[in-house]
From TrEMBL:
Molecular functions per Gene Ontology: transmembrane transporter activity
Residue ranges of the TM segments: 30-52, 64-85, 193-213
Species name: Deinococcus sonorensis KR-87
Protein name from the UniProt record: Amino acid ABC transporter permease
Family of the protein in this entry: Belongs to the binding-protein-dependent transport system permease family.
PANTHER family associated with the record: L-CYSTINE TRANSPORT SYSTEM PERMEASE PROTEIN TCYL, MEMBRANE COMPONENT OF AMINO ACID ABC TRANSPORTER
């Protein structure tokens, strides 16, 4: 009993000792996730439009991209980009390779979210906008996208939360973020449970805060919709 208590005290102490280091890299993790989200959104929007285009070749190519990304693990994609591209003459540093992999992965999932949101807007509204003299670009940005944004918001929030957790995978190519910092602490202290448990709690806390922000934004948009 006493030995078990002592072991838990060691774990707790190692977790508390690791906490300052882990907290210092939490904003870094958030930065990588936000960067991948901000870069993935325009990519996803472009792919969504290509998936809706009447041009068969573009629709097929964009569909293959989405299918490949969704059908392969993110870890494999990271390895292909970081370890595979140098054999083709393109060498990326770990940070660039990691963020690129996260961006390409997010872009594929975001494209499906945006495509579904765009298609959820009734076709009659597009036709009405065109009949009033708006061109296709104006119809897209002024009529379709404001309504599609409300539909897409929950999935966009979920994607950002997933990206926060997925940043842990780029630690395998030595990018120092929350997970990698925990690994470095473990390598120094030889006590794995405390630092890894603390890292898990920080991920949980960050994602919980993002979930609350997402719900607040959804409620605000819902009130705005009712008011209109």
């Amino acid at each position: 009993m006493d030995s078990a208590l002592q072991q838990w005290q060691v774990v707790w102490q190692s977790a508390l000792q690791a906490l300052p280091t882990l907290l210092s890299y939490t904003p870094v993790t958030l930065g990588y996730a936000l960067a991948a989200m901000l870069l993935g959104l325009p990519l996803g929007f472009l792919v969504a439009l290509l998936r809706l285009t009447p041009v068969g070749l573009l629709r097929t190519l964009s569909g293959l991209y989405v299918s490949f990304i969704r059908g392969t693990p993110l870890l494999v994609q990271i390895f292909v980009i970081y370890y595979g591209l140098p054999s083709l003459g393109l060498t990326l540093n770990p940070l660039t390779g990691g963020v690129l992999a996260l961006t390409l992965n997010a872009g594929a999932y975001l494209s499906e979210t945006l495509r579904a949101a765009i298609q959820s807007v009734p076709r009659g509204q597009r036709e009405a906008a065109l009949s009033l003299g708006l061109n296709r670009s104006q119809t897209l940005w002024l009529i379709v996208m404001p309504q599609a944004a409300r539909v897409a918001l929950p999935s966009l929030g979920n994607t950002l939360i997933s990206l926060v957790k997925d940043t842990s995978l780029i630690s395998v190519i030595t990018v120092v973020e929350l997970m990698r910092s925990a690994q470095l602490v473990v390598a120094r202290t030889f006590e794995p449970f405390g630092p890894y448990l603390m890292a898990a709690l920080i991920y949980w806390a960050v994602c919980s805060v993002l979930e609350v922000v997402q719900r607040l934004m959804e409620r605000r948009l819902a009130r705005g919709t009712v008011a209109v």
